[in-house]
Amino acid sequence: EQGRHAGGVSRAWGPRRVDLRHGVHLRLVNVGPAARVRQGQLGYPLCSVCGTSRSPFASQTEQTNFAAHHRERCQAPTVFVQGNAGQQIEVIRPMGLYADLVADVLRLSDCESRVEAYSVLEALRLGAAEVLDMEVEDLQVLVIGRPGATSVKGLLYDPMPGGSGLLQQMVERWPEVAAQAMHIVTGCAGQCATSCIDCLQHFRNAFYHRHLDRHVARAALEAWGSALHFGHDIPPRMPEPPDHDGPVNEGERTLQWHLEWAGFPPGEYKHRIDLGGRYGATTPDVFYVDPTGRTMGFCVYKDGLSDRVHGNPERRRIDGQIRDELDAMGYDVLVVSETDLSEREAMHRFFRKLGRRLMDQAELRNLEQRWGVPESST
Question: Which stretches of 195-239 are DSSP H helices?
Fold first, then answer.
């Protein structure tokens, strides 16, 4: 939970505080299969160059062969770890994965334990599915711990971009949702000791089955009651304004990362070019000064001259006219598509085009060795 949000409302649920916040910035991190993480083994066998992966439960022989193959073919980084027989073996460097999202969040603060947080939130989610006639997966559960503390924060978040309104409906119908949650945890057909498929468990929450306890959820629901009481408005906490000298959106940041990785010099991200007349001005995603002075400079655009180019013929026509105007003014335009950013060979072709404009042959050959391009392919 990155602290950024668009504001919301805080309410009291008995002695506990419940916050409904909009536009919360979250980063979801996957550091490996739970069973291996509990043993201190983090990450997945994933080639950082071509994206090929292997199961983290693959045999030692398969993992060493996988590492050797991608070290030779992709120049992927590898590490040495202790093997089953105590010897040192080479494996691909393990990698974690993450995704950033912006979501509406219902936060239950200061839960005494993960068991309390998961059990209460899962009961509320199942209760809301019945009351609001929604799918259980329409809302997701996330529990966040703090270093050195036993208490945790429980989040129920809406993964729908822009929000579906389910959390607001849930708050407005809280007594009904709480009552249905209580019915679920007290009416278990299996009368289980902690949890089972007749109450809180289902396939989608298998990751935290061990933290689910319907008796803990029932005790909390009984103690906290079924009503929410208004506390106070939550003012927004938004990100700092972007660096005016750097990328301003995710596409530009991705392009910048590729250019830096490839070894190109820093470009300009706010270079405005006045086109005059009906075209106004254009700002390339990245601009480079021509070191030879033969052109007005190199304009790099991601996915054409507009992020809205796909499916918009009028926008495409205007962008083509702007490109022609830049060419007439003496600028050199290079385009890299969104799909190219994830294609190794396509990016190598783009790097070569840009490299031939910015540096001499010796410098370009040095960079190609860094990219892992054989000399015979250049």
Answer: 214-224
